Amino acid sequence: MTATGTEVAIALRGVKLQHERFTLGPIQCEIPQGMVTAIVGPNGSGKSTLFRALLGLEPIQAGEADILGQRVGGPQGEAYKSRIGFLAENPLQYENSMTADEKARFASCWYPNWDWERYRKLLRSFDIDGGQKLSKLSKGSRRKIELAVTMAHDPELLLLDEPSSGLDPFAWKAMLEELQRYMEPGNRTLVLATHIMEEIKRLADYILFINRGRILGLYEKDRLLDDWRTIVVQNEAAVKGDAERLQRTPGLQGVTEAGPGVYRLEVNEPEQGEAYCRENGFQVLAVQRMELEDILSCLIRKEEARR
Ligand SMILES: Nc1ncnc2c1ncn2[C@@H]1O[C@H](COP(=O)(O)OP(=O)(O)OP(=O)(O)O)[C@@H](O)[C@H]1O
Fold it and tell me: Domain of life here (predicted)?
Protein backbone atom coordinates (compact mmCIF):
# COMPACT_ATOMS: atom_id res chain seq x y z
CA MET A 1 0.00 0.00 0.00
CA THR A 2 1.61 3.25 -1.08
CA ALA A 3 0.51 6.87 -1.18
CA THR A 4 1.76 8.19 -4.50
CA GLY A 5 3.83 11.34 -5.01
CA THR A 6 4.82 12.00 -1.40
CA GLU A 7 7.78 11.33 0.90
CA VAL A 8 7.37 8.43 3.27
CA ALA A 9 7.29 8.89 7.06
CA ILE A 10 6.78 5.24 7.98
CA ALA A 11 7.66 2.31 5.74
CA LEU A 12 6.57 -1.16 6.78
CA ARG A 13 7.89 -4.11 4.80
CA GLY A 14 6.45 -7.45 5.78
CA VAL A 15 6.19 -6.40 9.44
CA LYS A 16 4.87 -9.21 11.58
CA LEU A 17 4.51 -9.98 15.26
CA GLN A 18 2.62 -12.63 17.07
CA HIS A 19 0.85 -12.90 20.41
CA GLU A 20 -0.65 -16.08 21.73
CA ARG A 21 -4.02 -15.40 20.11
CA PHE A 22 -3.31 -12.55 17.73
CA THR A 23 -1.07 -12.00 14.76
CA LEU A 24 -0.25 -8.56 13.42
CA GLY A 25 0.75 -8.62 9.77
CA PRO A 26 2.53 -9.26 7.61
CA ILE A 27 2.05 -5.55 6.94
CA GLN A 28 3.29 -3.85 3.83
CA CYS A 29 2.55 -0.15 3.66
CA GLU A 30 3.99 3.35 3.39
CA ILE A 31 2.53 6.18 5.46
CA PRO A 32 3.09 9.53 3.77
CA GLN A 33 5.05 12.39 5.32
CA GLY A 34 3.42 15.79 5.77
CA MET A 35 -0.06 14.25 5.91
CA VAL A 36 -2.60 13.04 8.43
CA THR A 37 -3.28 9.32 8.28
CA ALA A 38 -6.11 7.81 10.32
CA ILE A 39 -5.82 4.15 11.25
CA VAL A 40 -9.33 2.77 11.33
CA GLY A 41 -10.48 -0.69 12.31
CA PRO A 42 -12.72 -2.61 14.70
CA ASN A 43 -11.80 -3.21 18.36
CA GLY A 44 -8.92 -5.62 18.66
CA SER A 45 -7.80 -5.21 15.05
CA GLY A 46 -4.23 -4.33 16.07
CA LYS A 47 -4.03 -0.51 15.97
CA SER A 48 -2.38 -0.13 19.39
CA THR A 49 -0.16 -3.15 18.74
CA LEU A 50 1.05 -1.50 15.55
CA PHE A 51 1.92 1.71 17.42
CA ARG A 52 3.79 -0.25 20.08
CA ALA A 53 5.71 -2.14 17.40
CA LEU A 54 6.69 1.13 15.72
CA LEU A 55 8.10 2.40 19.00
CA GLY A 56 10.01 -0.80 19.67
CA LEU A 57 7.81 -1.50 22.71
CA GLU A 58 6.94 -4.88 21.21
CA PRO A 59 9.58 -6.65 19.16
CA ILE A 60 8.93 -7.00 15.45
CA GLN A 61 9.44 -10.68 14.70
CA ALA A 62 9.69 -10.48 10.91
CA GLY A 63 10.07 -7.76 8.31
CA GLU A 64 11.41 -4.22 8.66
CA ALA A 65 10.00 -0.89 9.82
CA ASP A 66 11.58 2.46 9.00
CA ILE A 67 10.43 5.62 10.78
CA LEU A 68 11.65 9.02 9.61
CA GLY A 69 14.40 7.21 7.73
CA GLN A 70 15.63 5.17 10.72
CA ARG A 71 15.24 1.42 11.12
CA VAL A 72 13.23 0.35 14.20
CA GLY A 73 15.63 -1.84 16.22
CA GLY A 74 18.46 -0.77 13.91
CA PRO A 75 22.06 0.33 14.63
CA GLN A 76 21.04 3.96 15.32
CA GLY A 77 19.20 2.74 18.41
CA GLU A 78 16.34 4.79 19.79
CA ALA A 79 17.45 8.20 18.52
CA TYR A 80 14.40 8.44 16.29
CA LYS A 81 12.10 8.47 19.33
CA SER A 82 13.08 12.03 20.27
CA ARG A 83 11.58 13.13 16.93
CA ILE A 84 8.26 11.43 17.74
CA GLY A 85 5.40 12.29 20.06
CA PHE A 86 3.44 9.23 21.17
CA LEU A 87 0.16 9.26 23.05
CA ALA A 88 -0.75 5.80 24.33
CA GLU A 89 -4.36 4.66 24.52
CA ASN A 90 -4.31 4.36 28.34
CA PRO A 91 -2.66 6.49 31.02
CA LEU A 92 0.44 5.11 32.71
CA GLN A 93 -0.49 4.06 36.25
CA TYR A 94 2.98 4.77 37.67
CA GLU A 95 2.44 8.45 36.87
CA ASN A 96 -0.63 8.67 39.15
CA SER A 97 1.18 10.40 41.97
CA MET A 98 2.74 13.04 39.67
CA THR A 99 1.29 16.42 38.86
CA ALA A 100 0.99 17.43 35.21
CA ASP A 101 4.00 19.73 35.54
CA GLU A 102 6.06 16.95 37.14
CA LYS A 103 5.18 14.66 34.24
CA ALA A 104 6.18 17.45 31.87
CA ARG A 105 9.50 17.98 33.71
CA PHE A 106 10.21 14.25 33.40
CA ALA A 107 9.36 14.30 29.67
CA SER A 108 11.45 17.45 29.10
CA CYS A 109 14.62 15.49 30.01
CA TRP A 110 14.05 13.13 27.08
CA TYR A 111 13.40 15.66 24.34
CA PRO A 112 16.13 18.13 23.26
CA ASN A 113 13.44 20.28 21.59
CA TRP A 114 11.21 20.48 24.65
CA ASP A 115 9.51 23.88 24.75
CA TRP A 116 8.01 25.00 28.09
CA GLU A 117 6.28 27.92 26.45
CA ARG A 118 4.59 25.59 24.00
CA TYR A 119 3.57 23.24 26.86
CA ARG A 120 1.96 26.09 28.80
CA LYS A 121 0.21 27.37 25.68
CA LEU A 122 -1.24 23.93 25.07
CA LEU A 123 -2.45 23.71 28.68
CA ARG A 124 -4.09 27.12 28.28
CA SER A 125 -5.84 26.12 25.07
CA PHE A 126 -7.14 23.00 26.84
CA ASP A 127 -8.10 25.16 29.84
CA ILE A 128 -6.22 23.01 32.34
CA ASP A 129 -4.02 23.66 35.38
CA GLY A 130 -0.64 21.89 35.40
CA GLY A 131 -0.34 21.81 39.20
CA GLN A 132 -2.92 19.09 39.76
CA LYS A 133 -2.15 15.47 40.62
CA LEU A 134 -2.88 13.19 37.67
CA SER A 135 -4.77 10.66 39.82
CA LYS A 136 -7.16 13.40 40.96
CA LEU A 137 -8.10 14.44 37.44
CA SER A 138 -11.07 13.33 35.36
CA LYS A 139 -10.33 11.05 32.41
CA GLY A 140 -10.76 13.90 29.93
CA SER A 141 -8.61 16.36 31.89
CA ARG A 142 -5.82 13.80 32.14
CA ARG A 143 -6.08 13.21 28.39
CA LYS A 144 -5.63 16.94 27.75
CA ILE A 145 -2.44 16.95 29.84
CA GLU A 146 -1.12 13.90 28.04
CA LEU A 147 -1.78 15.58 24.70
CA ALA A 148 0.03 18.74 25.83
CA VAL A 149 3.04 16.73 27.02
CA THR A 150 3.06 14.68 23.79
CA MET A 151 3.09 17.79 21.63
CA ALA A 152 5.33 20.11 23.66
CA HIS A 153 8.59 19.15 21.93
CA ASP A 154 7.03 19.88 18.54
CA PRO A 155 7.75 16.41 17.14
CA GLU A 156 8.17 15.70 13.44
CA LEU A 157 5.82 12.75 13.80
CA LEU A 158 2.84 12.46 16.13
CA LEU A 159 1.42 9.02 16.86
CA LEU A 160 -1.87 9.33 18.72
CA ASP A 161 -3.83 6.33 19.93
CA GLU A 162 -7.48 7.39 20.31
CA PRO A 163 -6.56 10.94 21.35
CA SER A 164 -10.10 12.16 21.91
CA SER A 165 -11.03 9.40 24.34
CA GLY A 166 -12.86 11.08 27.24
CA LEU A 167 -12.80 14.62 25.81
CA ASP A 168 -15.95 16.74 25.96
CA PRO A 169 -17.08 18.45 22.72
CA PHE A 170 -15.31 21.73 23.62
CA ALA A 171 -12.04 19.99 24.41
CA TRP A 172 -12.44 17.88 21.27
CA LYS A 173 -12.76 21.02 19.18
CA ALA A 174 -9.70 22.53 20.89
CA MET A 175 -7.79 19.34 20.16
CA LEU A 176 -8.75 19.43 16.47
CA GLU A 177 -7.61 23.05 16.26
CA GLU A 178 -4.27 22.22 17.92
CA LEU A 179 -3.71 19.29 15.57
CA GLN A 180 -4.58 21.41 12.54
CA ARG A 181 -2.16 24.10 13.77
CA TYR A 182 0.48 21.42 14.32
CA MET A 183 0.14 20.35 10.65
CA GLU A 184 0.32 23.90 9.26
CA PRO A 185 4.10 24.08 8.57
CA GLY A 186 3.58 21.26 6.08
CA ASN A 187 6.48 19.01 7.13
CA ARG A 188 4.82 17.28 10.11
CA THR A 189 3.15 13.90 10.02
CA LEU A 190 0.22 12.84 12.15
CA VAL A 191 -0.93 9.25 12.48
CA LEU A 192 -3.92 8.65 14.70
CA ALA A 193 -6.00 5.63 15.58
CA THR A 194 -9.60 6.62 16.04
CA HIS A 195 -13.17 5.34 15.98
CA ILE A 196 -14.63 8.85 15.61
CA MET A 197 -15.79 9.23 12.03
CA GLU A 198 -16.19 13.01 12.35
CA GLU A 199 -12.58 13.27 13.51
CA ILE A 200 -11.43 11.32 10.46
CA LYS A 201 -13.53 13.45 8.12
CA ARG A 202 -12.17 16.68 9.56
CA LEU A 203 -8.51 15.71 9.97
CA ALA A 204 -7.41 12.86 7.78
CA ASP A 205 -5.79 13.02 4.34
CA TYR A 206 -5.39 9.25 4.20
CA ILE A 207 -7.17 6.34 5.84
CA LEU A 208 -5.46 3.06 6.63
CA PHE A 209 -8.07 0.36 7.21
CA ILE A 210 -7.05 -2.56 9.40
CA ASN A 211 -8.89 -5.74 10.40
CA ARG A 212 -7.69 -8.73 12.40
CA GLY A 213 -4.09 -7.58 12.18
CA ARG A 214 -4.09 -7.18 8.39
CA ILE A 215 -4.15 -4.00 6.30
CA LEU A 216 -7.26 -3.74 4.13
CA GLY A 217 -6.02 -0.72 2.22
CA LEU A 218 -4.55 2.79 2.38
CA TYR A 219 -6.87 5.29 0.71
CA GLU A 220 -6.89 8.98 0.02
CA LYS A 221 -9.88 10.10 2.07
CA ASP A 222 -11.48 12.58 -0.36
CA ARG A 223 -11.17 10.15 -3.23
CA LEU A 224 -12.57 7.34 -1.14
CA LEU A 225 -15.62 9.36 -0.11
CA ASP A 226 -16.12 10.56 -3.70
CA ASP A 227 -15.75 7.16 -5.32
CA TRP A 228 -17.62 4.79 -3.05
CA ARG A 229 -21.37 4.80 -3.67
CA THR A 230 -24.41 2.68 -3.04
CA ILE A 231 -26.50 2.18 -6.17
CA VAL A 232 -30.01 0.73 -5.81
CA VAL A 233 -31.21 -0.82 -9.06
CA GLN A 234 -34.32 -2.65 -10.16
CA ASN A 235 -35.18 -4.88 -13.06
CA GLU A 236 -38.98 -4.93 -13.17
CA ALA A 237 -38.83 -7.96 -15.46
CA ALA A 238 -36.68 -9.69 -12.78
CA VAL A 239 -35.20 -12.22 -15.16
CA LYS A 240 -33.01 -15.17 -14.27
CA GLY A 241 -29.34 -14.24 -14.50
CA ASP A 242 -29.80 -10.68 -13.11
CA ALA A 243 -27.60 -11.36 -10.10
CA GLU A 244 -24.86 -12.92 -12.27
CA ARG A 245 -24.87 -9.94 -14.62
CA LEU A 246 -24.59 -7.51 -11.71
CA GLN A 247 -21.48 -9.37 -10.51
CA ARG A 248 -19.72 -7.88 -13.56
CA THR A 249 -20.59 -4.26 -12.58
CA PRO A 250 -17.40 -2.13 -12.83
CA GLY A 251 -15.94 -1.39 -9.39
CA LEU A 252 -18.35 -3.75 -7.64
CA GLN A 253 -17.45 -4.23 -3.97
CA GLY A 254 -20.64 -5.82 -2.69
CA VAL A 255 -24.18 -6.64 -3.73
CA THR A 256 -27.29 -7.63 -1.76
CA GLU A 257 -30.83 -8.42 -2.93
CA ALA A 258 -33.16 -5.86 -1.36
CA GLY A 259 -36.44 -7.27 -2.76
CA PRO A 260 -37.78 -9.01 -5.87
CA GLY A 261 -35.65 -7.68 -8.74
CA VAL A 262 -34.17 -4.96 -6.50
CA TYR A 263 -30.44 -4.94 -5.71
CA ARG A 264 -28.23 -2.72 -3.58
CA LEU A 265 -24.75 -2.45 -5.05
CA GLU A 266 -21.65 -1.03 -3.39
CA VAL A 267 -19.24 0.26 -6.03
CA ASN A 268 -16.08 2.35 -6.24
CA GLU A 269 -16.38 3.24 -9.93
CA PRO A 270 -19.74 4.99 -9.68
CA GLU A 271 -20.18 6.42 -13.18
CA GLN A 272 -19.11 3.24 -14.95
CA GLY A 273 -21.14 1.14 -12.52
CA GLU A 274 -24.30 3.16 -13.06
CA ALA A 275 -23.85 3.11 -16.85
CA TYR A 276 -23.32 -0.66 -16.83
CA CYS A 277 -26.53 -1.21 -14.83
CA ARG A 278 -28.59 0.93 -17.24
CA GLU A 279 -27.07 -0.79 -20.29
CA ASN A 280 -28.06 -4.12 -18.80
CA GLY A 281 -31.73 -3.36 -18.35
CA PHE A 282 -31.73 -2.11 -14.75
CA GLN A 283 -33.47 1.03 -13.66
CA VAL A 284 -31.35 3.09 -11.24
CA LEU A 285 -33.56 3.96 -8.25
CA ALA A 286 -31.00 5.76 -6.07
CA VAL A 287 -27.32 6.63 -5.88
CA GLN A 288 -25.82 7.62 -2.53
CA ARG A 289 -22.37 8.37 -1.22
CA MET A 290 -21.22 5.79 1.34
CA GLU A 291 -20.30 6.64 4.92
CA LEU A 292 -16.84 5.60 6.13
CA GLU A 293 -18.23 2.97 8.49
CA ASP A 294 -20.14 1.37 5.59
CA ILE A 295 -17.01 1.36 3.44
CA LEU A 296 -15.10 -0.31 6.29
CA SER A 297 -17.86 -2.93 6.71
CA CYS A 298 -17.77 -3.64 3.00
CA LEU A 299 -13.95 -4.05 2.99
CA ILE A 300 -14.15 -6.33 6.02
CA ARG A 301 -16.85 -8.51 4.37
CA LYS A 302 -14.68 -8.87 1.28
CA GLU A 303 -11.60 -9.74 3.34
CA GLU A 304 -13.52 -12.28 5.46
CA ALA A 305 -14.87 -13.93 2.30
CA ARG A 306 -11.29 -14.28 1.00
CA ARG A 307 -10.02 -15.96 4.21
N1 LIG B 1 0.47 -7.99 25.45
C2 LIG B 1 -0.42 -8.73 24.79
N3 LIG B 1 -0.42 -10.06 24.90
C4 LIG B 1 -1.31 -10.83 24.25
N5 LIG B 1 -2.28 -10.33 23.44
C6 LIG B 1 -2.33 -9.00 23.31
C7 LIG B 1 -1.43 -8.12 23.97
N8 LIG B 1 -1.74 -6.85 23.63
C9 LIG B 1 -2.80 -6.92 22.79
N10 LIG B 1 -3.15 -8.20 22.60
C11 LIG B 1 -4.22 -8.67 21.71
O12 LIG B 1 -3.91 -8.15 20.44
C13 LIG B 1 -5.11 -7.85 19.73
C14 LIG B 1 -5.05 -6.43 19.19
O15 LIG B 1 -5.17 -5.53 20.25
P16 LIG B 1 -4.98 -3.97 20.05
O17 LIG B 1 -5.09 -3.34 21.40
O18 LIG B 1 -3.77 -3.72 19.25
O19 LIG B 1 -6.27 -3.62 19.16
P20 LIG B 1 -6.90 -2.19 18.80
O21 LIG B 1 -7.18 -2.23 17.35
O22 LIG B 1 -6.03 -1.10 19.30
O23 LIG B 1 -8.26 -2.25 19.61
P24 LIG B 1 -9.20 -1.07 20.24
O25 LIG B 1 -9.86 -0.40 19.08
O26 LIG B 1 -10.17 -1.83 21.08
O27 LIG B 1 -8.31 -0.16 21.04
C28 LIG B 1 -6.26 -8.11 20.69
O29 LIG B 1 -6.79 -9.38 20.40
C30 LIG B 1 -5.58 -8.12 22.05
O31 LIG B 1 -6.26 -8.97 22.93
Answer: Bacteria
Residues 210 and 233 in one domain: no
Q: Is there a domain that residue 155 lies in?
A: yes
Closest residue CA from atom 17 of ligand 1: 48
Domain that holds residue 276: 229-289
Residue 144: partners with Cβ closer than 8 Å, 6 or more residues away: 123, 126, 128, 167, 171, 175
Tell me what ipTM this predicted complex has.
0.95
Q: Is residue 169 a part of any domain in this protein?
A: yes
CA 306/CA 283 separation, integer angstroms: 31
- CB of 211 sitting under 6 A from ligand 1: no
Name the residue at shortest CA distance from atom 29 of ligand 1: 44
| Residue whose CA is at the smallest distance from ligand 1 atom 4 | 19
Q: How far is the CA of 28 from the centre of ligand 1 (A)?
A: 19
**Pocket perturbation via mutation, ligand 1, pick of 20, 48, 164 by most ligand atoms within 8 A of CB:** 48
Ligand 1, atom 26: closest residue by C-alpha:
43
pLDDT tens, 17-40?
999 999 998 999 999 999 999 999
> Which of 18, 47, 161, 210 maximizes ligand 1 atoms within 8 Å of its Cβ, making it the mutation to test the pocket?
47
Return the beta strands (E) in the chain as ranges.
8-18, 23-32, 36-40, 62-67, 70-71, 84-87, 157-161, 189-193, 206-211, 214-220, 229-234, 252-259, 262-267, 283-289
Domain count of the fold of the chain? 2
Does the predicted TM-score (pTM) go above 0.80?
yes
In a domain, 306, yes or no: no
What CATH number is associated with residue 255? 3.30.70
